[in-house]
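thread: overnight batch results

M.L. [08:02]
morning all. the overnight job finished for the chain we discussed friday. pasting input first so we're all looking at the same thing
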Amino acid sequence: MNYQEINSKTIDLWCKEGWEWGKPISHESYEKALNGEWEVLLSPTKPVPHAWFGELKGKKLLGLASGGGQQIPIFAALGAECTVLDYSEHQCESERLVAQREGYQVQIIQGDMTKRLPFEEEAFDMIFHPVSNCYVEDVKSIFKECYRVLKKGGILLCGLDNGMNFIFDDDETTVKYTLPFNPLKDEKLYEDSVKNDWGIQFSHTFEEQIGGQLEAGFILTNVYEDTNGAGNLHEHNVPSFWVTRAVKG
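M.L. [08:03]
and the structure it wrote out:
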């Protein structure tokens, strides 16, 4: 079993246990979005500014590793033509159930974003990519694929883990691990990851995540930081996530 298969099964397990990012939105939230009252997250606490999206009606939008029925239903309610790619069977099924409940169309693909994306060049106007790069060893290839499948002037919205979460113990009080955090290159770290049902996660540097977008050809237009939303680091207002808006030049 490769590490992406482990991660897919781990996400399915988390969802069954009530994982926050695996809970579909309610019918009431969908109805509010139809009436122009909505928000979506790329990180734990701060909603993405509406101005980052522009007009969504008629736009072709890809939710990359964005299954679960949380964000895509909002975009569908706002008139976007939505596709979602996610490797979790549970997240894809949640996406399907919400679409059936609310009566909108969405293309759902259970797939691995570390592979070449199954889309033609310039297929989308926007990509919405919540925090998920931490489950992938090589993130630069993902940004290159995003650039390929976006139209010129297309928008890439990303939530990115800045690595802070990987160095502490579970209580977030003691520094336990060093960076980079890569279980594929550390046998003990791999054993801890499997034993604790963490999935196989990876820290990534500023150069990999911001530099990777720039190397792919994107123009960075907006950024903000966010915290975990709970726990010791959050209570001390330590940023653990970056959120970026970039445009294909």
